[in-house]
Amino acid sequence: MRYYNSCVSWSSHDVDAEGGLCDMVANAMSISRRSFLKHVNREDLSELEGCLGGASHPRRGLTIAGDRHVAYYRGKLHNERVYFMTHSAVEYVFRNGVK
């Protein structure tokens, strides 16, 4: 799955819509990073993690993988399976058919 969007720039009409962002978050299932990595595009994730300030290697600082405050989820967005991570209370969503 490719990176789709973050909740910060989500379309306002889809935040509270049935099956939209709030429903996706409320009904999500927590998963491991390992499981998350099996389903998302690694290049997109690497670019996103760099934009979030994550170091590329533990010797260079805190990586997103090493950040205990980052969480990973599987959910449904309008009945479509998606995977997302939260970092600083922001959801970053990956889905099929993007880019």
Topology:
Elements: E1 2-6, H1 12-15, H2 21-26, E2 29-31, H3 33-39, H4 42-51, E3 71-77, E4 80-87, E5 90-95
Antiparallel strand pairs: 1-5, 2-3, 3-4, 4-5
Structural overview:
This protein is an alpha+beta fold and 99 residues long. It has one domain (2-95). It contains four helices and five strands. The longest helix is centred in the middle third of the chain and has 10 residues, at 42-51.
Keyword list:
99 residues, alpha+beta, five-stranded antiparallel beta sheet, 4 helices, 5 strands, 27% helix, globular
Please outline what is shown here.
By secondary structure, the chain is α+β, with helices and mostly antiparallel strands. It has helices at residues 12-15, 21-26, 33-39, 42-51, and strands spanning 2-6, 29-31, 71-77, 80-87, 90-95.
Spell out the helices and strands N to C.
Answer: EHHEHHEEE
> Whole-number radius of gyration?
13 Å
Percent strand equals 25-35%
User: Main beta sheet, described?
Assistant: 5 strands, antiparallel
Number of helices: 4
Spatial sequence of strands, sheet with the most strands: 1-5-4-3-2
